[in-house]
Design brief:
RsmE_MTase_dom, alpha/beta, 8-stranded parallel sheet, 13 strands, 5-stranded mixed sheet, transferase, Alpha/beta knot, Ribosomal Protein L25, Chain P, 240 residues, 2 domains
């Protein structure tokens, strides 16, 4: 697979497209690519083209030669509803969720979250996470971007309509994933914070129609639980 770059511009076979500054920097300065080397561009909406690096009036560009029809998207649409985690745990969660096929990551604020975001920090952190999602898509071959939504409280998210099933990981409760029927549409998978869900939150989730599910008798860390569940769901009903 040639180096892949997210390029949110119309991609048309036969055109020579000047590369956005960030893509040009990555290709030329980071990867040390030279004119004539193969690359791939994808727009994040499902379109991808192969081509080669070239120049137009001294500006790095790509000559697009072939469309790539394969989207590499999983047949199961999972939104990871992840309680905010501290340090670089959220970076890890976003990156691996993209690799495992999640279509979106929705950060939520839970009672026992240690990380609190407010003001300018919110926008900066979401932009950071979205860039991590872009890099993960470039690496793993996806040509549709996983959306990273703005954080919101768990209560507010539970009140927001979701077109699909809502499942919540609750240690010691619920049905094992292996014993569940395949979902008939999109799934929102809720993962608690480092300190776990409170009883009040579990009650609110149940009232909102969230189905408790289990990953077995062991209690997993917040940065492990969602990724383990994603992998298991893809093995059971996805494309693994």
């Amino acid at each position: 697979m040639p180096p892949r770059f997210h390029c949110p511009l119309p991609l048309v076979v036969g055109q020579t497209l000047p590369l956005p500054a960030e893509v040009a920097h990555h290709a030329i300065r980071v990867l040390r690519m030279r004119p004539g080397e193969a690359l791939a561009l994808f727009d994040g909406q499902g379109h991808e083209c192969l081509g080669e690096l070239t120049e137009v009036d001294g500006t790095p560009a790509a000559r697009l030669t072939e469309a790539v029809p394969d989207t590499r998207e999983a047949p199961l649409a999972i939104t990871l509803v992840q309680a905010l985690a501290v340090a670089d745990k959220m970076d890890w969660i976003v990156q691996k969720a993209v690799e495992l096929g999640a279509v979106a990551v929705q950060p939520v604020e839970a009672e026992r979250c240690v990380l609190k975001l407010a003001g300018d920090r919110v926008g900066k952190r979401v932009a950071h996470w979205q860039q991590i999602a872009v890099g993960a898509a470039e690496q793993c071959g996806r040509n549709r971007l996983c959306r990273v939504e703005n954080p919101q409280s768990l209560s507010r998210w539970l009140q927001t309509p979701f077109n699909g099933e809502r499942w919540i990981l609750a240690p010691g409760e619920g049905v094992a994933l292996s014993g569940m029927q395949p979902p008939q549409g999109p799934v929102a998978l809720l993962i608690g914070p480092e300190g776990g869900w409170s009883e009040v939150e579990l009650a609110k989730a149940g009232a909102a129609g969230c189905r408790p599910v289990s990953l077995g008798p062991r209690v997993l860390r917040t940065e492990t639980a969602g990724l383990a569940a994603l992998a298991a769901m893809m093995a059971l009903w996805g494309d693994y």
